[in-house]
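Comment thread on ticket #2218

A.B. wrote:
> Attaching the input chain for the structure job we discussed in standup.
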Amino acid sequence: MNKKIITTLLLALVAITGQAQVKCHIEGKFVDNKWGDEVVICKMGTDLRVNDAPEWHHKAVNGRFECDIETDVPEMYEVIPYKQYVETASYYYGWFLVENGTVRIEIYGDKSPKIESTGDEGRLH
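C.D. wrote:
> Ran it. Output below, let me know if you need it in another format.
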């Protein structure tokens, strides 16, 4: 092979490995407005008192929110109604697997979120 082909192949390989392999679309809605219009979506186990990033906060518009998460590998995430987290000692949260597909979340004022996934692993749970 000549140098030009090898260089092109190496650059293509670098471009592929630098991109996220898992792309997950999140769609959610507040079923009632008891806990405001904002959720936090972050990796499971994140201590928001220590580490809280603005990009984890998602405001609902007309009761609905959405975002995309891209990672290198499937990972567990959680969704937390932000106002409930700030105002109460305990809060309802839900866990879900970020994997290729769509995760649908319904936030309730008095129980844990309902979470459904179109991903292969998420549908098993």
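A.B. wrote:
> Thanks. Noting for the ticket: The helical segments are 3-17, 82-87.
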